[in-house]
């Protein structure tokens, strides 16, 4: 990983190289990188943990992510490429003004930071089981490697390491861990005989949990900063679109494999105190030395790739959407991006010492992202009549309702996003329709999102579109 970081450093000569790998990736590198940013610790360590607890229905978390990443390619790739927008706050700013950029930046930085934290926790979990290290020391080791190659070369380094990590975890999960674990417990018939029927039901995890995962990870992933930034590493719209769909198919299969490994692990190791230890415990129980190392490397690769992708997403929002409006082009240099990435990494490391659950950290972050930003982002891209007031009120209402239910029902409960997203939608639609009824008749139809001028005030965009029509 460090060698790949050095190679990436030699390629990162401009801010665009550092943040979006120069926008030059072909189908294989792009699909590999997009898959690895999806399949992190929550999908690998957490997915097998859910399979250990619930059986095949434990794949719903990863399946929701897979559907979300495919949807980004189908629905968003064309608009974002044509509009030249690669951060979520920038998209909202172009449609709804500077206030929406600041509000959304806070939510996006929190989300990307917390998902990065979850990956550091996942690395610590694996290293603690395998080497007997303390949790803090294990997290520090994993974090240090990630930061060395990420700060060195930015997205170029991250992409090169992603391709290596993609190959490692494909072999480690599909060719090694899945077949050997299922074989060790006597195959699928033996698993059916040993485990409750619910372990083979697609809804065994519960319809409420499935619904929450869908709201959180399908809708949330469609506006995930790491995924938007990856879209722009592709060399064309076609590569961005179909590579995301291919990544979604791969991720769905990965989720099923993880759930089956976890279910087999329940037969093999029925009394684990912490389900998050299932991945390393199963690997240690069924794999010989050497092969065991490959599978552990697969878990570490999954967490490292997602952590690096999300942390650079957080630092990009900081430099592009918060610092650049204040400091101008000085915030767009490679040096500024490196400093921001290192600062974000240090904060993530500090937070990781306080978190214990891989899936929990992702859930808290995705709750706020989906509840606060999904509706206004979709409105910005697809509803031309949506208003600035509606966007600001929607972000505030969805976020507030989400935070209230986190306090009332618990951080990891299903209710925050289930109530936050509808609140955001009702406010967004209601305020927009109220403004249209109260406004003057015969208003000019606003321009499409991709026709908006970068950096211009939304009112100026609408005015310029009207001038063009008049001419």
UniProtKB/TrEMBL annotation:
Transmembrane portions of the chain: 28-52, 58-81, 102-131, 137-159, 166-185, 205-223, 244-265, 285-318, 339-358, 364-383, 390-411, 417-435
InterPro entries xref list: Na/Glc_symporter_sf, Na/solute_symporter, Sodium:Solute_Symporter
GO MF annotations, alphabetized: transmembrane transporter activity
Keywords of the record: Membrane, Transmembrane, Transmembrane helix, Transport
Subcellular location per the Swiss-Prot or TrEMBL entry: Membrane
Bias (Polar residues): 461-471
Protein name (Swiss-Prot/TrEMBL): Sodium:solute symporter
Superkingdom of origin: Bacteria
Region (Disordered): 445-471
Membrane topology of this protein: Multi-pass membrane protein
